Structures
1.
Amino acid sequence: MDTDQPSFFDDTPIFILARSSLQIIDANKEAAIFYGYSRDELCKMDIRDLGHKEKRIDLLNADTRTQEVNESIWVHKKKTGETVYIQFTSHMFNYNGQPRKLAVAHDVTKQIKNGDDNLPEVQFYTGAKPLAEIVWDPDKVVLKWSDKAEILFGWTREDAVGKDGFAEEFIYQDEQQKDHQLVAENAEDHKTYYTTQGRVITKNGEIRTCEWYNRLDYDEEGNLVTIYSLVRDISAQKESEYLFRALSEKSLVGVYLIQEGVFKYVNPRFAEIFNYSKNEIENKIGPLDLPHPDDRGKVDKNIEKRMTGESQSIKYEFRCLTKDQKIIHVKVFGTRTDYMGKPAVLGTLLDITNSKLAYERYQASVENFEDLFDSISDAIYIQNGDRTFIKVNEAAAELTGHQKDFLIGETPDVITAPGKVNLESIKGYFKNALEGSPQEFEQWGVRKNGERFPQEVVLKPGMYSGERVVIAITRDVSERYEIEDKIKKSEEKFRQLFENAPFGIVMMDKHQEIRAINASFQNIFGYTLKEIEGLDIDDIIVPDDSKQGAHEISEEVFKGDTISASAVRKRKDDSLVDVQIYGVPVTINEKAIAIFGIYADVTEQKEAESKIKKSLKEKEVLLAEIHHRVKNNLAVITGLLELQQFKTESSEAKDILRESQLRINSIALIHEKLYQNENLSQIAINVYLEELIEVIVASMATEATNVVINIESKPIFLTINQAIPCGLILNELITNAYKHAFVGRQEGEINIHLQEKGYDLKLVFKDNGVGIPADFDFENPSTLGLTLIQTLAKQLDGNCSFEREEEGTTFKLQFEVAEL
């Protein structure tokens, strides 16, 4: 059984009295606290020693076994001398085998002092029924089972009295162990009574929640003899409590119960609002701990009004501080109630911080609206259902020349140019706008000084101060009218230009439908305007296989771009014509409203271009043949030099002839690459170098020295005028390295690196040979090879140099790559 819940018997003064003498046999803890006497002192008195009755009806002495509501008012004095007014309810029962009276004292002092004759209905038990009486032995065997117990629980005396195991059937299974433990603990401490709450099972299987008042009787040795229980069914009360808690726990507003200066209960939302947990608030924090210091007086006063009965319910707003000292705004609804026999305040609490902030923002927004309303450059008039101006902005006053105060209360007629506007039409626009349909039109207005001006008007439905209104927005379009007038004056000039242009021109609207063509267009395609007006231009002159491309051109033009494209179009007789097309958008206010399609017949240009391409091809073939013949002629020269080399006996002459052969081969190799390329004017230097090195190595390699040549180069294209000098320079460098750099060595290495630096080509040639002599003077070369290198570098307009390294020699050459 549950002992954690507050018990009625713990919170209300209760006496056990002798039936006739009203001698106090026993009193509960609350009676001792309330009257200020100890239990021993009370048990030496009868109830009349505490005071006297003011009314004559004395139901306290009535001989009945049912519950009684005593209409007598007893005037009692506490031990301190304080006078209190008491109303009793009582119940007859057997106590230690003697008839006794259970009397409950209800404090009605406040009602009496306030002169309230309508005393509250005192309810001690559920309905008007007496308590059930059950007597147990220490083993929980029933010794007595009252009529009320039989009525409440359905078990008869025969079912209950003396039956082993009946307690296990009667007491709810989950609470049996706790019940036995509770009896044992109280008996061990020799307590004479305790109260608890717990569930029982009726004979028909229904589970009920009951409140138990248990009296423990002991023998002379102090052994527990009997347990006397008074039981009342509080199931309905518990169901109400469970329902209240279920609704409260899920509520989106804070729910609280204040009693004796603290929060006895708060729901999760209440705790969440203040950033506390429930455990941090309940029975620890009071209602004056949460309000802002400046608002605590207001809260204290309102709570006092409800607790004293001056006001049963109240609602008000104040500021609070959360656990983290954040200021919030709350609205409280509270009402006075009784909880556990004592006055309390039950209520709800709303966090209205956001609402407060929203209201403050609203107040600021009203001011901002006024500023914004007057800062808008367009004139704005707010009109009620009678067309009367109820608000206008500064721009409206500036536009019309009237003061704002003058315009308020007037209708649009006062600022409409007479004789230039159909007022009935304007009223029709207004009516449609008021009914929810926005309107847009142009009309003539008049200023205070009589000046007339064109204006653009937009009418929109709206709400202002809870009233349906029409919001009129107007703009002076005099400048646009002037522009349009200038356009009209230039139309004749444009028309003449359009008609006399040597190119075919067609004007199309935003749907690509033909609206006008000139004479040249008619001459190119064979159509008259009458035949194609209103038709889609793509359906008329675009071949089927070109429609997608034509559509893309039109889309680009309508985006505002001017497009140029070459295409084939179709004449009226289905013949095709080559044309150059220009798409030109016509824009007003940055919006394309039409397209001009300009067509130039380029048939003759196409034919001339074809002839040029044919002639160019013939020249390319001829140039390739020339390169081929030059290469062959150089090969013949190389062959003659080789025959001469075989016939001469001089080793010096042989070397000279062989060097000449290599130089000629480097030139011939370039011509060979050129006639093999599609491009007859450029060659890839990296490919050329690889093949050139193969030729040189095949000619210069000896068994004495193994030379490895590494090339690092990306594709770099040179013209023939730069490729030949570059190839000859590399030829001289490689042959010179073979002849001088690796003398007396078995291995050697040459690294050639070519890279582009901006518009320049940088060539770095490096060997790991013996290096150049210390007295080497590149400015005054003594050999043909070095002289040739220097001459070829100047021919390239480049800079070159030799550098002595710790191991070997480095040659650097840099020159600007020529463009075709």
2.
Amino acid sequence: MSQKLVLVDGSSYLFRAFHALPYLTNSKGDPTGAITGVINMLRKLPDQHATKHVCVVFDAKGKNFRHDIYPEYKANRKKMADELRVQIEPLHKIIKAMGFPLISIPDVEADDVIGTLSTHASNEGWEVVISTGDKDMAQLVNQNVTLIDTMKNKVTDEAMVQERFGVTPDQIIDYLALMGDASDNIPGVPKVGPKTASKWLNEFQTIKGVMDNADSMKGKVGENLRASLEFLPLSYKLATIKCDVNFDYQLNALQMTPPNTNYLRREYEHYEFKNLLRQLDHAEVTNSSPQTVSPTPSIDSNYEIITTETQLATWIAKMEIAKLFAIDTETTSIDPMKARLVGISFATEPGIAAYLPLAHNYEDAPKQLDFTATLQRLKPLLENPAIQKIGQNIKYDLKVLARNGITLQGVAFDTMLESYVFDSAATRHNMDALAKKYLNYETTKFEEVAGKGKKQLTFNQVSIPIGGLYAAEDADITLRLHQYLWPKIEAIETLKSLFEQVEMPVMQVIDHIERTGVRINSDFLQEQSEALESQINILAKQAYELAGEEFNLSSAKQLREILFEKLEIPPLKKTPGGVPSTSEEVLKELAEVYELPSILMEYRHLTKLKSTYTDKLPLMVNPETGRVHTSYHQAVAVTGRLSSSDPNLQNIPIRSETGRKIRQAFIPSEGYKIVAGDYSQVELRIMAHLSQDASLLKAFKEGADIHTATAAETLGIAPEEVTTEQRRKAKAVNFGLIYGMSAFGLAKQLNISRSEAQTYVDIYFDRYPGVQQYMKTNKAHAFADGYVETIFGRRLYLPDIKARNMGIRRAAERVAINAPMQGSAADIIKRAMIDIGHWISTEAQGRVKMIMQVHDELVFEVKDAYIEQAIPKIKSLMEGAAKLDIPLIVDVGVGDNWDEAH
């Protein structure tokens, strides 16, 4: 007999129970309707289905990947009622106490988790019952998977899907995409309901078939279909339940455990559930302290709080003998340039960890070891390069310790970077996510020890017994993560090399860049803000005059009323919600004919520059250093590129004159110049190297202008005959194709017909057959291996490369083409940073400072007297960071500000 798994759509249960029952409260006024409704539905399931394999799945807090794809996803939904919100957390705890496994995965919806579990179980031959009221789940139905609506006692199998919807389970996604979903704000074809959708799908089988035959559709519904073609693929993607969510689970482990009757009794008494109380036995209530914080009991642990000199000496000796230990600092701020050190935790073996409190200063805080003297005792250990240290995002700890006189050495591992190198796209790389994914362990959250919101304590205010266990757990879990991840990385030589020779060394370089910071001219920015304010006011007045009234220029609703109702400008495009669009793309096109859209575009541009940069940057100057210190993130972009925040240096504009003025505010210290080295067309050069296309290699080796060369090749003319417009089109093709742009996208960008664009693409591939072959080969490798690699062995896994959904698979194929180029470019500039960092520390210390990394550019402060020696050295080291079959070229500039040097 096959095993049976019941998957409960907890989120569906929750909302249906809340809206189905009257507004219920206990005598204290606490809402109880959703809690009691869900409990009563759940407790019947194990007996009804004769299985202990029952799992409850809830949506996680916050947005998910569909919001990234389509920001308006579920935008029409009303804010969750406070009466429901306050019931969610206690309900989750009660469900767990009842013995049900409960799963909630960030960045995806409950549907996606259920889809993943049901697909896996079905493939393993299990019988699967999905308990839900959500029609979208019909796409999961097959011979092993059925749906049951507990509230209506209705079962939906394959035959019932056909009877209920008029289509097969395999067509449900197409069906949903054609109709759209008002509750989720998924756009569909206007006026297309169940009958039309099922009729079309019975005739044309798929949504693609419907779209391909759009021209043959008659009447208003045909017009609506043709007007909807652009966003139907998006609707299909939004309606598709993801069936390959990456999280750790074992099907056999998804079964009920004995209930915690003491906890249930306490909660049932609080909520005054008399019927439920009668069903519990009369076990005594456990008098557990709500302030006690301890690690999840699924791991053995022996945590200690160091409060005496003897304990400290014992732990120092233990770490010296261990030769490798995990370290973590606790501070007062997430900004390491402002944070005050509160304590340090260590772990030498799994479960063997300690917390050393140094600066807890709450009322009645116990006496702690002397701050300065204790750090002096730790200094030889922490600065000993022969004793290896492990951290989670250890770059933070490096700064904190450095600001307290300790240069942490022997930094061998960072679990955040280990996870990133192992699989950059698998999960977020913070400790909580990694512990959940790789150790199946739920870490203690900071909010559990410090509180939330305005009342949240800084760590120095957290009691030592509570904070100590939290801190020791951080070090312990860091060590456990390393022991899990490192053997997997070490087994793949390219990943081991990438970690040891690129990611760890460049982390140290980035640390120095961040600590150095960059000097800005705040007075200059203040002047810019005032000038921008004046220009913005002038633009606003001009807009009011053209509109004939004052209105909120930042309000899309008011803007629509002015443009399309009052001024009767014909709308060019509608949003998925069916209203005229006021997007930048639309305004840009309207600006060619109408003055008001042109003014509005300039207004938006200037207000963004003012609020994001000229107003904000001076406020970000660190009072201790007088400089702005950005944070670079190694483990965010899946391709290996660095990103930055606070401020985001990657987004400082360069094309507009006003934007370039912001770069003029980035200035050197007295007696220094700004020097910038920028890789020239690095991704196209990598494409030439990877594709080995003879014409591309020849053009780069000869130092030709690659866009002119491409135009000459594709048009069959001499390079000197190429016009500016022809070069512009060739440039769009060069860059568009390496990002997987289709002929449709190229036509739109160049404002030409799709057939003309397709002809241009066909000619390009005819002239550069190596490029086309590279694309085909890389897609084939991705399909076979599940990942692609950079020149240096960085892997990017592509789980969607085998997706049944054509749109999702095509997107993965585009990534398979571009990721090796983006990732290789990221690896190259990181290698350059390492080489230059070594040169600065050994030869040019004090005369050269690396202050920024932005896209393919490195920015330095160089002493005036050292400019002539530094520029050729920087150029040489950057160009020598990789040996390709064509030369890497770096353009180096110098100036009194960043704009001059670029």
3.
Amino acid sequence: MALLVLLGCGLFLIPAIVFAAPFLQLVLVLVCLSIYFLFRYNPFTAFLVFTFLYPFLPSQSFEALPFDYLEFLFLCFAFWWALGKVYTKKEVRLLSSRLTPALAFFLLGCFFSAFLVLLKNNYLFSEVFLLNLKDHWNIFIPQPVLGQLGPIRAVLYSLEGILFFYITLDIVNTPERVSKTTRIMSYAAVLVCVVGILQYFLRFHLVRFWVMDNPNLVRINATFSDPNSLGTYLSAVFCFGVFAYLYDFPRTGKKDLTLLAILLFAMVLTASRAAWTATVVCVLVLPAVGRLLNFDISANVRGALRGIVRYGFHVAFLVLIVSILSAAMIDERDPKSKSFLRVLLFTLNPRVAPNVVLKGRLDMWGAAIRMFEEAPVFGVGLGNFGNRITSAPFSLAKSENAHNYFLQILAEGGLVVFFLFILMIVQIFRTGAERLRSANRNEFLILYGLFAGLVAILLTSFTGHPLLLLKLQFLFWSFAAMLTFGAKSSSPKRISPMLFGTAIVLTGLVQAGIIVHFRHISAYEYGYYAWEKDLTNEPFRWTSSEGISVLEVRGRILQLQLRQLNPDVLKQPFQVKIYLNDQLLDTVALTDTDWKERKYFLPDMKQQDHAKLRILPQGTFVPRKFGNDTRNLGIEVRRFVWLCSGGEQPIGVYEREEENGINYYWTQGQASFPVKGPVSKLSFSVLPNSSVLTSPVEAQLFWNDMPLKRLSLDRLQWKQVDLDVPDSSDGELTIRVSRTANPKRMGQSMDVRELGVRVTWPFQVQTSKSPVPERRNLLEHPRLYAISNVANRPFRLLAFSVDHPPPVPVVLRSGLALPIQPGWLATVQSPNPWVSLFSVESMDAEHAHESGKIRLPVNLGTGYWLLRVTAKGYVKTPEVPVARVAVDNREIARQPILSGDWKDYYLNVELGSPGKELLIELVNDTPGPADKSLFIREVLAARKEEETELPKPGWELSGNNMVIAEPIDNDILFGPENYCYAMVGD
């Protein structure tokens, strides 16, 4: 195991030093060598130095810093420690501990959770995964967005924390060393407090988010990434210090009281209510809980602390009651309080809604629970919560954590990892309790302080995320190691660790098999920077040296928009090559800073669900002269759009020209020409570009999605082309050339275009004598109808005009059949099963609109129901009103009301128990110019039989519209053009 640590640390240290700037390389080598000499001198001294330093080191949370010094220092430390064990002590195994089975199982569960999310959507075995892994191999360079590599980072953090546990066990192996280590930790915490107190008075390096959240109150963060994390750190050290240093106050511990007072004062300045609560509970309530469990510590303490231990719970309870009554009488409701006392009064005010007190955390907790319901076994993937929370149905504006570490573990790791995490925590406290019972008085007080510090960290984890941060992981695991050191390893009697581990592995492999069997291709990419917005508020992003996107095929035509803002483009044309599935599709010449649009008909995508698009700019530039931007930028790219039809005119061509009475188009790398009406033969002429003088140019011809012919053009002259095409009505001829030519680059003229071949237009069309098989395209030009959630999966509803729908329709999306339930149509058309739950004619005071809500007492039995809500909205704002529909406080849909006219919205619901209350509320109302209104005219319900399956999202009839539901892809800009539809019938 020590050899693995040595190899792993070296694997990550090498790229950190090799890829750093030259001056930084020298600094990193000196740091690494300094740690080596410290270890050669004394490993325990090296451990104390690291323990003292790590609270002060910047971490990845500081986005402005180019390097993660904390992680680099730790891996240097772990590297020399492992090297000492292997080459000096000749040991390759880590120190045994009673926690080892629980820690091993927890890491195994974390591994499978991360592995499964990387396996999903075919990402793990893709070229994009390897490219992203290569770019992020240097883990010390802070990455604002790791994207789908987030699970690897999460597993590494867990590994590093648990590795520090074993290092602490190995080095801090005597009571005297525990005492010295905790002293050093306390002194480091006091210095952190000094930085924080100075920050409070001088206002330096305040976190912008917390300043914006409440500009009336200064919240310090000192050397930590946010005030709540600092609060957790100070609470844990303070709780430890109270029991470890004030056991005989005032006879001893007067100097320690001063240090603890500084810790307490700084903790108050963090305004972290979780830290305040954890401190009160650990100092005043925890001893009382211990007495209930026959674990009385009062015999080991004297003086003032004995009184706190005996009567602290009663004092805490009395103060809490008085505080709640005071808060109720003062009625403080301002969430942006100007003093720490008002923060407390606002928090304890019973008139303020809990979600307001918790600053929206209940919404995050609900999202975590719904995320867990999506994947209950191994979760949505360790480290993947931030990515999922920005996607539908949650759709937060920015990546967030759950603000509850336990719920985050449940959502990301599922029941397996959550159970293993709880098992690990229980084993820590169980082992610590056994050590406390057998310890002498001096050891007991330090161990009890460590116990209280761990409890403080876990209590703050209910509303925060301390164990997501490396600094607090080191604090937690060092406390756990010192609390449990000396406890001999023992295996559980009832269940074999091997059997338990085998069960986890088999569960993970079964889950992996299910994913492989049912996986689908989803969009993922490489080589793009974060999304930005241009002056027209349209989203775009920069590529780096290349951009690769694996896209789900959603239509016949792919539309791109490119732009180059490098001013050098005005002096020399800038080329961009576009590849489709590793074949050159087009070469684009950019000559100015305007957006350039390209459309490509994709004839060879007929049998493919996905396509790999590669955008390769001619070069990159660093825009240092425009600011502090140090990125290597290629070109700007807007969101990709799939189109159903190219229209009446050719696409992929330049302006129409005429020469000697011949009308023609110059093509780009690929061009498509629409042919309307019946056709069996096409005739036209082509002329290649001037590069044909050096080598032949090939042109590949497609009719719709069928390859027809390859032309080899070796002369600079017109060539007549006669093509026999399958008898059909309407179609698309696509010409793809092997090479384009830029006349300006070739020194022939000032023409900067990338030219393919000249094609005469219009074509000469011949029709066959036999009748062309008729194909009815009943659905054209879909329009957005609504968005709905079914079982927490978002769907877009697109409406089409249908005069005579076929009896058994088949909906095709990119050639793939969607599931259809014709039984839906009968339910929607027939008025017999509908039961009225609400209508404006029967509205009384009980149903009145209050604060944008309607609460309806209903009597819906268990089973499947279809709800029809007739609604309209005030939609003259950029954001349409959104109605939240819930049964017994369980959300079943979040429905945007996209029309100012009365429309019927159909919603599915499955009730496991009778529904007693229906809630419909406007959830995105904002006062002022962006005010929105929601109007409800009628709510009906239709019962489905128990034995019938809940209809899948398919289609339904609304007036003269056929409404079709499609799952929303969270990775693309929403719009009706993102999917193409056709309906055919017998």
